[in-house]
Amino acid sequence: MDVRPFYREGREGEEEEQRLWGFDVELVDDGAMVCRVCVRMDTEVVEKPDFIGIGQDGFPVNEGGTTSVEGRFFQIWKVGDEVVTDSIREVLRLFCTSLMHAINKYYAFGSCFTDDL
């Protein structure tokens, strides 16, 4: 596996000229690239409220100002015309499953290296 960072140009008004936006993964078999996968956030902008309060009916309501956050969905997709065999498909499935488990552990426990509880 060969993993390379993917940078995108910063938006106007941002301090950073480039920002890390994901990574590209090449699956290699016997020294030859057999499949390339892109892993990154999309560019959709979501409005995030500053606070979540409780309304008079007991349900959550947005309170305070809002902040624009770029990147609504985390995306994984195959790039290129390479034919995917059953063995490569199994490796891709394992890669995607392991990546999602690592992300879930990070958000739940603060580290992707947390042992299963």
UniProtKB/TrEMBL annotation:
The lineage of its organism: Eukaryota, Viridiplantae, Chlorophyta, core chlorophytes, Ulvophyceae. It comes from the Eukaryota. It comes from Ostreobium quekettii. This is Uncharacterized protein.
